[in-house]
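Chain A, query sequence.
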Amino acid sequence: MYKVIASDLDGTLLNSNHQVDPFTISTMRALESQGVPIVIATGRHYCDVAGIRDVLGIRPYLITSNGARVHAPDDEMIFADDLRPNVVQQLIKPDIAGEHGRVIVNLFADREWLIDRDAPHLLRYHQDSGFTYNVIDLQQHDGADIAKALYIGDPADLAVVAANLQRAFGEALYVTYSLPDCLEVMTANVSKGRALQFVLDRLSISVARCVAFGDNMNDIDMLETVGHPFMMNNANPDLIARLPNVPRIGNNFEAAVAHHLRKLFELDDELTA
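Chain A, predicted structure.
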């Protein structure tokens, strides 16, 4: 019945310290050893996720920047969809992010995480990969080769940013939250669900045979796409309200994805691992 696994990272496969624990590692390795294709689908940067993948010790497909990039298990980039340069140049202007300067503005290029100020507190999210940012004057960036723009700030400030984006671009962009304090912007053609469909077509596996796990608003269409969606108990309440019929399985800090996968694929549930 189950032929492929897709999982979000933060709040889902990663624990409360944004790391993978040994039980999750052993589970994912066991499943891959049985020939089950694994897909990681996240808003994180490809270079960051490649480091997490290496800690897991598996070779999954990587859907990153919420679907703006897809890499095959051999690291070949098999799909990319960038924001238009003129759009990027608008996204970094203060009339979108706020003249007050409280919102941290980020751009994800092919190999770099670009940021408008030093923000060392963000590095705790990248302990496994060691991925870090480059501080630049974003106003001088030409807008080329950018997969995603990311605004980090207080939810009240981000609500204003979202309203600014809606006013300026309408439905021309894909705007979503990955965390309450992270608002992400990609081209309108991009989403985790569309990228996952691309991978499944490449594998010649029906969406009906796919299991997927998520916890936040950027997981909506992925969970709507697959035949067997599951949601974390710690999921965003807005996601729970949006998808009330999707089963909830437990919390990310309890390695719930790993435990649930062991049940679905009939592996021994090594509780002491």
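Residues 32 and 58 are 7 Å apart (CA to CA). The domain at 4-80+190-264 is CATH 3.40.50.1000 (Rossmann fold).
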